[in-house]
Q: What sequence folds into this?
């Protein structure tokens, strides 16, 4: 084996090395100069991103005896993951500073979580997938509990950990069945085994697959494996929630696509039904329960469950068009989610957690520009044209229609209408209610800039969705 | 010439935009200079176009300027058809508009909406030109609606007055009724001719006339009759023919220059113009023409009667306008399109003159409009007096005046129109126009005497302030008085009896009363003599004027006595035949009641209450129940996952 053969895996290796640098450097940085850690982290992300761009290639390369794959899909997902993590760190900086949480752990754990995400994205075997999943999950558990003085954070971390352990157990159990029947952990060998041996297409294999789908459902937060999600969204500190709401969704999509598409496309009819159950339940429960929420983080949590319903229905189609729609939806969703949680963070100050919907009352009077940006995010998530969320939903709906499921398409439209209610309620609060708070929002120039860029991107991609859509079609079509 | 055409249309539009959007920047003087210049330019170019077409022997032009859309083979275009009919209308419209623009400088001098007013009247000029210059039905409809819009805006120009808002809403609603018929007529044309272009539609006229349509199944109607009647319903709305006339008297709530320009000289004649333009279609349906005659005759006579009992100076003239529009409509109905357009032209001049003279009186009396509080203004306002006299004489048809030629020709045409048969239609038309002459003279001179002669009935304070209006007001009066007096003499020969319109108006041989009359026409002088010798028209007018003199100057106590004696008739007239009461208490109130029912029961209760809010409440309650599932206990969460796993396995095994 030649060292240059490992080049496609360079981003992960680079990131791992840089994490060690950040970890070590943070040990020697005094508390007042913690900002050094922050900038080192950003630099690490920048270098990782650059290495991703440099190693990007159109072809598919498999490394480490078939455990690792580098393909255009992985580049797109990883680059987005690095980007949203960086944006999240930027938004979090002031908040952490003011709440005396400006510590190295946040960044190191965040970077490890990113590493796990990237490993999952490039996984080509069950083992790699599980490895990445655990790296990510363990980082997340720790991140949720990161504010040690907060009882709710500890409680939600505990719930997250226990339920995550159950889900991991289910996933591992399913993997063991699959390994036992197909004799392989690599997705392509599994796929090949299913294709060449018709006898294999039998109940035991389906049984294993069902357990694997429990793992997928948990990672995505699909109903009924979603119970952790609202509690964790609410219980964790807002920057952590932002983190959980973004990069892990990309990892979950990778998990789904790698296993179901790369590994089990031959059993499409089998998993299609299961995914549909999860998706329909998520659509209905996520969107309906979100209406009853008064806490915006919890509301966004339930709405995330609703969005997962959309993503899963796109995967459900089992067509290239559907997979591309799922990718488009996930990519744009994380951008909008990052922005909306960025606004939640921005509204919070020292000793005050802006969590309630009522905290958004009269925001327009306080800071018209930020209110306008929040309007962008809300309209985007609601799927109001021309914001990008509209095209995301449209792609999924047309993919489902083309696959021949008009009933599901109608359900999605209805769910989107219900969803529009609670998103537009936020807009209504911002513009038509009078503020209880008069203070003008304070934000550093870089935060302002990134947030504005984020909001404008939600509009700009919506106005010109063609390039992103064709990109998605190219990597998955 | 194409450049001329575009400039004629676009100059007023550009001026309207500048005066409307940048009124503050360019100031009051800027607004009136730019609009007057633009309309003046349009007038000069229109005159050149007319000269080119008539004196220079130029050819009519029909071309498309811009294709807006092609839908299923149906071309929607902006295009111009410029023939002598169009050119005549263009000159009349731009000339009267120019006069009104100048007059407005004086009349609206102290108004805070000065720039807005100029913007509107320029916009009106643009819309009216689009209407008359169109070569297709779509653009005709655009112009039709655009003049309606500007009319609406201008009637409600003083939008803080309750009565102005009421009047413009009324005009809007009544015109909706007419426009509904109009657009149905256009739809019928598209249905049968599959084109919006005039030339194409006219060419397929005979084919349409040969077809029947069953709107009510089992009852076949001739397609052309239906189309023409529907188009004419549009004309009834715009040209205020009974029973859609009710908006015009109320439109006097608008500023006086508007009454002159829009509600006397130009917009209200759009219906007349339209029917004349559509003469190739109307000629194919004698039934439709009979309808036109009857409606016109009723309007001509009965609206004239109402003028006798009105006391508002502008409303008297408004009823006179209704009556004169009725005359034109009758002429259309007997296929004397040339006479109708001729009367349209002379009427535009003398009626604009009368309105502007009335406006001059109104300014002098500080916006007093009640003629019972006027009188004896002759010595204070000599120019207004003499011009108003010319206008009044033209209106009653004093021999030699413009109105005399047009009205006499028109009445002669009605008398000769035997092709309608000797039955009811003929006699209704003939009697109405004859008796109308007497009525016209009566109300015209009642107004004239009450305003300018007799006792000075205004209060002392008012009298001390009365003086002649400034030159921007009297100038247009004089300029309008000239054509009111003499234009008939010069133009009757070509326009009515000659071949002025050429192919722009089509008349079938059997209907061509004007051609029959033309054989006996030997010049204007002969025409006057003929009127004295063989027609009662002149004597009827004289009788009307003398009656007015007797009742309102000689024995001013008599009208009260008569109105008491004939109190039934008097009440009927004062209440305007109860049309307003019927419409307001019947249709409008009924519509409001239906609307209220649909709003409260249909919208609020059924749609909002049950369907919309009901669904929302159900989902809200569902949300409340479902959120209870999230107990917060870890074991419940784990249990849910187990249920989920079971569900997946069950699903898998089941299917």
A:
């Amino acid at each position: 084996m030649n060292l240059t053969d490992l080049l496609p895996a360079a981003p992960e290796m680079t990131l791992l090395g840089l994490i060690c640098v950040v970890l070590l450097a943070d040990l020697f940085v005094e508390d007042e100069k913690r900002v050094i850690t922050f900038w080192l982290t950003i630099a690490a992300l920048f270098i990782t991103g650059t290495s991703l761009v440099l190693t990007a290639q159109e072809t598919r390369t498999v490394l480490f005896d078939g455990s690792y794959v580098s393909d255009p899909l992985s580049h797109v997902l990883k680059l987005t993951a690095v980007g949203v993590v960086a944006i999240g760190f930027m938004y979090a900086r002031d908040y952490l500073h003011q709440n005396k949480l400006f510590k190295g752990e946040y960044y190191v754990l965040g970077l490890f979580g990113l590493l796990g995400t990237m490993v999952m994205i490039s996984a080509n075997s069950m083992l790699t997938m599980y490895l990445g999943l655990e790296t990510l999950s363990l980082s997340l558990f720790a991140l949720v509990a990161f504010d040690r003085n907060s009882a709710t954070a500890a409680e939600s971390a505990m719930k997250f950990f226990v339920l995550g352990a159950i889900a991991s157990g289910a996933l591992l159990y399913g993997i063991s069945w699959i390994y036992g029947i197909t004799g392989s952990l690599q997705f392509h060998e599994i796929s090949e085994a299913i294709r060449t041996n018709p006898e294999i297409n039998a109940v035991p294999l389906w049984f294993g697959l069902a357990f694997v789908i429990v793992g997928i459902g948990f990672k995505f937060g699909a109903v009924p494996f979603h119970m952790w999600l609202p509690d964790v969204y609410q219980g964790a500190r807002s920057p952590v929630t932002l983190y959980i709401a973004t990069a892990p969704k990309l990892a979950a999509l990778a998990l789904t696509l790698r296993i179901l598409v790369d590994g089990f496309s031959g059993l499409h009819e089998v998993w299609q039904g299961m995914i549909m159950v999860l998706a329909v339940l998520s659509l209905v429960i996520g969107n309906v329960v979100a209406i009853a929420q008064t806490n915006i983080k919890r509301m966004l949590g339930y709405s995330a469950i609703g969005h997962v319903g959309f993503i899963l229905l796109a995967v459900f189609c089992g067509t290239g068009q559907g997979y591309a729609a799922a990718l488009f939806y996930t990519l744009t969703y994380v951008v909008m989610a990052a922005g909306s949680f960025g606004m939640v963070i921005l509204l919070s100050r020292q000793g005050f957690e802006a969590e309630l919907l009522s905290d958004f009352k009269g925001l327009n009077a306080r800071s018209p520009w930020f209110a306008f940006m929040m309007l962008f995010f809300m309209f985007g998530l609601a799927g109001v044209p021309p914001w990008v969320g509209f095209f995301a939903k449209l792609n999924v709906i047309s993919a489902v229609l083309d696959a021949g499921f008009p009933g599901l398409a109608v359900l999605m439209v209805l769910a989107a209408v219900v969803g529009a209610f609670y998103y537009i309620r936020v807009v209504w609060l911002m513009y038509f209610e009078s503020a209880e708070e008069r203070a003008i929002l304070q934000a550093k120039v870089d935060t302002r800039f990134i947030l504005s860029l984020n909001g404008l991107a939600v509009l700009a991609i919506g106005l010109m969705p063609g390039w992103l859509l064709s990109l998605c079609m190219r990597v998955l079509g | 010439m194409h450049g001329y055409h575009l400039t004629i249309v676009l100059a007023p539009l550009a001026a309207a935009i500048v005066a409307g959007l940048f009124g503050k920047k360019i100031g009051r003087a800027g607004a009136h200079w730019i609009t007057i210049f633009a309309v003046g330019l349009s007038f000069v170019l229109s005159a050149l176009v007319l000269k080119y077409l008539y004196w220079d022997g130029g050819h009519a032009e029909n071309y498309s300027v811009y294709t807006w859309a092609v839908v299923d083979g149906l071309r929607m275009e902006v295009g111009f058809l410029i023939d002598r009919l169009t050119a005549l209308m263009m000159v009349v419209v731009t000339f009267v508009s120019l006069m009104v623009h100048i007059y407005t400088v004086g009349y609206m001098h102290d108004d805070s909406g000065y720039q807005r007013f100029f913007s509107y009247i320029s916009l009106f000029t643009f819309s009216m030109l689009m209407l008359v210059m169109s070569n297709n039905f779509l653009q005709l409809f655009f112009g039709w609606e655009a003049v309606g819009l500007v009319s609406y805006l201008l009637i409600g120009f003083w939008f803080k007055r309750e009565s102005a808002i009421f009047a413009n809403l009324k005009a809007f609603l009544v015109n909706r009724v007419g426009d509904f018929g109009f657009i149905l007529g256009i739809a019928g044309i598209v249905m049968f001719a599959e084109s919006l272009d005039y030339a194409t539609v006219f060419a397929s006229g005979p084919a349409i006339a040969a077809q029947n349509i069953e709107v009510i199944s089992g009852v076949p109607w001739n397609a052309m009759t239906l189309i023409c009647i529907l188009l004419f319903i549009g004309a009834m709305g715009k040209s205020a023919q009974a029973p859609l006339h009710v908006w015009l008297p109320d439109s006097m709530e608008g500023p006086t220059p508007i009454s002159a320009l829009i509600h006397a000289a130009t917009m209200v004649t759009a219906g007349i113009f339209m029917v004349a333009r559509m003469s190739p279609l109307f000629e194919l349906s004698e039934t439709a023409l009979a309808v036109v005659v009857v409606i016109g005759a009723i309007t001509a006579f009965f609206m004239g009667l109402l003028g006798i009992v009105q006391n508002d100076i502008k409303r008297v003239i408004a009823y006179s306008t209704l009556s004169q529009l009725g005359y034109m409509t009758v002429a259309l109905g007997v296929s004397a399109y040339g006479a109708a357009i001729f009367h349209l032209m002379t009427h535009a001049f003398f009626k604009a003159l009368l309105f502007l003279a009335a406006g001059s009186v109104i300014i002098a009396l500080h916006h007093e409009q009640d003629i019972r509080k006027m009188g004896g203004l002759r010595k204070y306002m000599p120019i207004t007096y003499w011009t108003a006299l010319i206008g009044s004489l033209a209106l009653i048809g004093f021999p030699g005046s413009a109105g005399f030629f047009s009205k006499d020709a028109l009445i002669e045409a009605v008398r000769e129109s035997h092709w309608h048969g000797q039955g009811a239609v003929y006699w209704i038309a003939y009697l109405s126009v004859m008796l109308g002459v007497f009525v016209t003279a009566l109300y015209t001179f009642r107004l004239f005497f009450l305003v300018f002669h007799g006792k000075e009935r205004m209060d002392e304070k008012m009298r001390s302030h009365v003086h002649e209006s400034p030159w921007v007001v009297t100038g247009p009066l004089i300029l309008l008085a000239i054509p009111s007096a003499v234009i008939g003499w010069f133009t009757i020969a070509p326009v009515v009896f000659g071949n002025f319109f050429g192919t722009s108006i089509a008349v079938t041989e059997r209907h061509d009363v004007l051609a029959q009359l033309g054989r006996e026409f030997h010049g204007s002088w002969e025409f006057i003599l003929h009127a004295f010798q063989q027609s009662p028209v002149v004597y009827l007018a004289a009788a009307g004027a003398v009656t007015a003199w007797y009742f309102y100057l000689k024995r001013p106590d008599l009208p009260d006595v008569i109105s008491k004696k004939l109190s039934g008739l008097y009440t009927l007239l004062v209440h305007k035949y109860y049309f307003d009461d019927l419409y307001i208490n019947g249709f409008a109130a009924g519509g409001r009641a239906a609307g209220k029912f649909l709003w409260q029961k249909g919208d609020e209760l059924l749609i909002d209450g049950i369907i919309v809010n009901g669904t929302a409440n159900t989902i809200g309650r569902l949300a409340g129940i479902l959120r209870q599932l999230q107990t917060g206990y870890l074991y419940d969460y784990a249990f849910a996952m187990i249920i989920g796993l079971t569900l997946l396995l069950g699903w898998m095994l089941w299917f």
